[in-house]
Amino acid sequence: MTRHSRPIIAVVPAAGVGSRMQADKPKQYLTLLGKTLLEHTLEVLLSYTPIQQIILAVAENDPYLDRLDVIRQPKIKIVQGGKDRAGSVFNGLKAITQPHAWVMVHDAARPCLTHEDLDKLLQIEDDNGGILAIPAVDTIKRASAEKQIIQTEDRSQLWQAQTPQFFRADLLYRALQQAFEHGLAVTDEASAMEFAGFRPHLVAGRSDNLKVTRPEDLKLAEFYLSRK
Ligand SMILES: Nc1ccn([C@@H]2O[C@H](COP(=O)(O)OP(=O)(O)OP(=O)(O)O)[C@@H](O)[C@H]2O)c(=O)n1
Ligand SMILES: C[C@](O)(CO)[C@H](O)COP(=O)(O)O
């Protein structure tokens, strides 16, 4: 199976409530430049031709999804999300039917992703897979439970993980299963793959591929999208 012949499937976890956003609806349905955050994210993936299918994991009884025309695109398949992000991703993986597929897991909350970064990720072809990430640019502090700064970390080898995270779908499925069985708290796919013994590659991404998480992130994301 060469790099160019493997099926590429995107799994988009979009079943969160966005509690840190403190908004009146889940953040993926907040509007930027006249479209929801989810529409922006899906449009980036739909327009990236190497992606053959998008599996979208949404909350059970999501009352917003049906209002979006984009979800009726034939490339998009809807599945029910899980109790946490990893559960939503796992449900998405279960819906992949293509043998030898590779999966790009991308947060619905990251609408500013570029095809330029996707191209970089697509260069990965060994079973370790890889993720977009940015090197730490601030001084990093480790704080005690009382949030008192107790020490400064060496940031020279620290990176902030982003998404997409790109792996062979079958290997990621098994790695997540193993992580769940061992009660591992999985906040990204790479942590499950590392637990399974793989060494995912770090691919330097753009710092504007932010995850919209807190209220102030929305205007920043809108600014980045306006420059596209
Ligand atoms: N049970 C969940 C929880 C999160 N997500 C998705 O995972 C992505 C990244 O998670 P995060 O930014 O934490 O989103 P939320 O969990 O919605 O935010 P919060 O933690 O502030 O509630 C988001 O696109 C979110 O919709 C998901 O699919 N299923
Ligand atoms: C997957 C991720 O975006 C990589 O940084 C991050 O772990 C998601 O964390 P969240 O708390 O679920 O937003």
From TrEMBL:
Site feature: Transition state stabilizer: R20, K27
Q: What is this protein called?
A: 2-C-methyl-D-erythritol 4-phosphate cytidylyltransferase
Kindly indicate whether the keyword Disulfide bond belongs to this entry.
no
Q: Does the keyword Transferase apply?
A: yes
User: What's the encoding gene here?
Assistant: ispD
Family listed: Belongs to the IspD/TarI cytidylyltransferase family. IspD subfamily.
InterPro entries according to UniProt: IspD (IPR001228), IspD/TarI (IPR034683), IspD/TarI_cytidylyltransf_bact (IPR050088), ISPD_synthase_CS (IPR018294), Nucleotide-diphossugar_trans (IPR029044)
Site Positions MEP for the nucleophilic attack: list residues: R155, K211
Q: Which HAMAP family match?
A: IspD
Q: Which UniProt keywords apply?
A: Isoprene biosynthesis, Nucleotidyltransferase, Transferase
